[in-house]
Amino acid sequence: MAGREIIQIHIGQAGVQLANACWELYCLEHAVKFDGTLYDPNQAEDSYSPFFALTGAGQVVPRVLMIDLEPTVIDEIRTGCYRKLFHPERLLTSKEDASNNFAKGMYGVGHEMVDLAMDRVRKLVEECGNMQGFLIFRAYGGGTGGGFGSMFLRNLENYFCKSSILEFVVFPSPKLSNIIVEPYNTVLSTHASTEYQDIAFILDNEAIYDILSTKLGNPRPMYSNVNRVIGQVVSNVTASLRFEGALNVDLSEYQTNLVPYRRIHYPIVAYAPFMPSKRLFHEQFSVASLTNSCFKPSHQLVKCDSDQGKYVSCCLLYRGDVVPVDVNNAVVNIKHTKNVQFVDWCPTGFKVGINYMPPIAVPGGDLARVTRAVTTLSNSTAIKFYWLKILKKYNVMLRKRAFVHHYVSEGMEEGEFLEAKENLRALILDYKEMES
Ligand code: GDP
């Protein structure tokens, strides 16, 4: 397994705060201490080498780059308990933030950061023997994640066009949005990014808040709670790159199996079980019940009713105590479920991964330790309803040309607003067409 390195890039406040949750979990999974030393110095390098590089001093260093135009969040990492884990040259900040403005992140202050960021990426890639791809984490609604992130993505794809680029993207929650111009930033970022990413997994804060309050018994979730749930899902998606399994799936296989056409690359992510940490070990879940749960909207990390759409393809990623025969039975069962309808031009539909490493619960987190779990990545046409909600908000503001001058004064052409709108409308139509 050695030599299939992955480089992770965390951009903007949401991206960097997600780094905290992801790397906290990876350190637990790979028995890495806060300072980058290993609990067992003789641990086989194969498992951690995709995510960590081993130094001559016997320390491991995450293959990661964090970028934020404003320093506060990264400063917390520089001074926090993980300060010795991360390479200081890979924590990039500038002094002026993007003020929640896509155009400022893309054309203004962000422009000055991109060369330095690309230089750091090239160095990270040079350290790899056989780099497999990039995972990018950011929020489309922010100025840095949206604007700078989109420009950076374009540069990355131009330079490393043969590598896979997968994104985990926080999308604004129509109900909980805390930035007024988020619909603008989100639609503009989608428009500016769709050509350069291979897959983008949409993470909707509102859906995750609901899961935390209704399923995990946390009535007042904070970003740190949301991020740990996302961290667990990201860990599941990447487990097969790091641990042994009966059927491991690598990054390029996700693309091959999930993306039937270049633009149709926004799978819906679902996870099971959401078992609260208070109910430790009191319940056990069968493979069939875990699988069924993932096809319910209540287990999705995006708020849209998957029963209203058709599935194009679906990856089922099991981890822990799972045997192929149980998975086969669960899949047969799902195929006969009335609500899980596939498009008729893709009759097989399922790609299965089985990894032996059970999920690890973070101490003090909301999720209990369980012996098995499943994550599904479903390319479903139901995602069009989510796009429609965002486009509606975008159009309401754009019709009045509200806030547009802030974008134009940063060097963005006003016509880009219309191009972005048309592009998203075309994407919605593309999904509609999949159904027929
Ligand atoms: P940026 O730094 O300019 O890219 O701005 P942000 O990353 O703060 O982007 C704003 C969006 O990200 C809003 O939708 C916020 O709700 C969301 N957000 C901010 N911080 C976090 C976080 O730590 N976790 C999650 N899940 N969402 C966040």
TrEMBL record:
<dbReference type="InterPro" id="IPR023123">
    <property type="entry name" value="Tubulin_C"/>
</dbReference>
<keyword id="KW-0342">GTP-binding</keyword>
<protein>
    <recommendedName>
        <fullName>Tubulin alpha chain</fullName>
    </recommendedName>
</protein>
<keyword id="KW-0479">Metal-binding</keyword>
<dbReference type="GO" id="GO:0016787">
    <property type="term" value="F:hydrolase activity"/>
</dbReference>
<feature type="domain" description="Tubulin/FtsZ GTPase">
    <location>
        <begin position="51"/>
        <end position="245"/>
    </location>
</feature>
<comment type="subunit">
    <text>Dimer of alpha and beta chains. A typical microtubule is a hollow water-filled tube with an outer diameter of 25 nm and an inner diameter of 15 nM. Alpha-beta heterodimers associate head-to-tail to form protofilaments running lengthwise along the microtubule wall with the beta-tubulin subunit facing the microtubule plus end conferring a structural polarity. Microtubules usually have 13 protofilaments but different protofilament numbers can be found in some organisms and specialized cells.</text>
</comment>
<keyword id="KW-0963">Cytoplasm</keyword>
<dbReference type="InterPro" id="IPR037103">
    <property type="entry name" value="Tubulin/FtsZ-like_C"/>
</dbReference>
<feature type="domain" description="Tubulin/FtsZ 2-layer sandwich">
    <location>
        <begin position="247"/>
        <end position="392"/>
    </location>
</feature>
<dbReference type="InterPro" id="IPR018316">
    <property type="entry name" value="Tubulin/FtsZ_2-layer-sand-dom"/>
</dbReference>
<dbReference type="InterPro" id="IPR003008">
    <property type="entry name" value="Tubulin_FtsZ_GTPase"/>
</dbReference>
<dbReference type="GO" id="GO:0007017">
    <property type="term" value="P:microtubule-based process"/>
</dbReference>
<dbReference type="GO" id="GO:0005737">
    <property type="term" value="C:cytoplasm"/>
</dbReference>
<comment type="function">
    <text>Tubulin is the major constituent of microtubules, a cylinder consisting of laterally associated linear protofilaments composed of alpha- and beta-tubulin heterodimers. Microtubules grow by the addition of GTP-tubulin dimers to the microtubule end, where a stabilizing cap forms. Below the cap, tubulin dimers are in GDP-bound state, owing to GTPase activity of alpha-tubulin.</text>
</comment>
<keyword id="KW-0493">Microtubule</keyword>
<comment type="similarity">
    <text>Belongs to the tubulin family.</text>
</comment>
<keyword id="KW-0547">Nucleotide-binding</keyword>
<dbReference type="GO" id="GO:0005200">
    <property type="term" value="F:structural constituent of cytoskeleton"/>
</dbReference>
<dbReference type="Pfam" id="PF03953">
    <property type="entry name" value="Tubulin_C"/>
</dbReference>
<dbReference type="InterPro" id="IPR002452">
    <property type="entry name" value="Alpha_tubulin"/>
</dbReference>
<keyword id="KW-0460">Magnesium</keyword>
<dbReference type="GO" id="GO:0005874">
    <property type="term" value="C:microtubule"/>
</dbReference>
<keyword id="KW-0378">Hydrolase</keyword>
<dbReference type="InterPro" id="IPR036525">
    <property type="entry name" value="Tubulin/FtsZ_GTPase_sf"/>
</dbReference>
<dbReference type="GO" id="GO:0005525">
    <property type="term" value="F:GTP binding"/>
</dbReference>
<dbReference type="GO" id="GO:0046872">
    <property type="term" value="F:metal ion binding"/>
</dbReference>
<dbReference type="InterPro" id="IPR000217">
    <property type="entry name" value="Tubulin"/>
</dbReference>
<dbReference type="InterPro" id="IPR008280">
    <property type="entry name" value="Tub_FtsZ_C"/>
</dbReference>
<dbReference type="Pfam" id="PF00091">
    <property type="entry name" value="Tubulin"/>
</dbReference>
<keyword id="KW-0206">Cytoskeleton</keyword>
